[in-house]
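We emphasize that the prediction below concerns an isolated chain of 365 residues; any contacts that depend on oligomerization or on bound cofactors are therefore not represented. The input was used exactly as deposited, without trimming of termini.
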Amino acid sequence: MSANNQAEIQALLAKCVGQKVKIPDLFALCPWDVEITPWDGKLEKEIELWRSRWIIDPISLKRNRIVDPGLFARAGAPRASFDGQLIVALWAAWTFYWDDAHDFGEFDDKPEEVVAHCAQTIELFRQSLYNEKPFAIDPAKISPDYLTVQSVHEWAAVVGEKCLSPSLKDWLFKVFADTCIGISRVQHEFENKVILDLDTYQTIRRDSSGSLTTLAFILYADNVAFPDWFFENELVLKAADLTDIIIWVVNDITSARHELQCKHIDNYIPLLVYHKGLTPQEAVDEAGRVAHQAYLDFEALEPQLIQLGKSRGCALEMGKFIDSCKFECSGIINWHYEVKRYVPWKPGMDRDSLYVVLGEDLPTE
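Result of the prediction step, given as a token string:
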């Protein structure tokens, strides 16, 4: 790290922290319908049992409860069975547990541990998906030191055993590994005080957001056998990428407040301020335009997807895929409003009159 870099980071933080910005109405950016299944006490109990087995630190446990993985699953996969929603919920609970270990300093100044943590996670997930007897795996043998890694096994093994579609399983493994590597890469750049250029950041963020992995788990929950070619098709991958853009940009808009509080500049908002000379409000507005354009591009792509499904004899599977892309976006946007992690919204409030102060706590009232 050069002194120059450190000075530029401090100057960028000074431009952003303390600035009051208006959060755009996220449903205006991506106006797909929200569909949420009712609250389910059994689902919440299963999530809490998983937490009780793996999350020991009380502060980490509190953070994990705040993100409400049950709502995440009920809104992101509203037409899935209970078992399918449970997998989506446990993925959400786990990924915040795993990611928060990076965000809240457990791996600060430990670059070798970051690499080992990532590699062990990917290896345990791989074995859980592909081992002929996934429940016979001892996760502690693969990762003796990290509960964040071991905790992936019990629900990933269910996916490995029950996934109907080999093509989906292969795609799931790819995007899961990409997510872990992306998050670890962000940690590496943060440690080295690197101010990423916008193209590099967007490439990393597409992976680190976990949006594609979430989509893959939602598709698993839909219990559909996709054809072998499906996740190699250019139109399908384009639709998935547009879904990813909507979600990571929306997340960066809503999480900039908190990430700047942690002195993190690996977020689209401060990077737009730095590279384009925008004010924080202008950066938020620009990010909103990017998310909305991805929505418009998906809408324009949808007829081609439908035609592809008809021509290749998989209209049902394509319909499920399109619906799942939309439900992921609308469900996660709704979830951003409902959980007490991102924005100070309450039922009845005007979503177009919502403000946060970057780098400061959310108001308690």
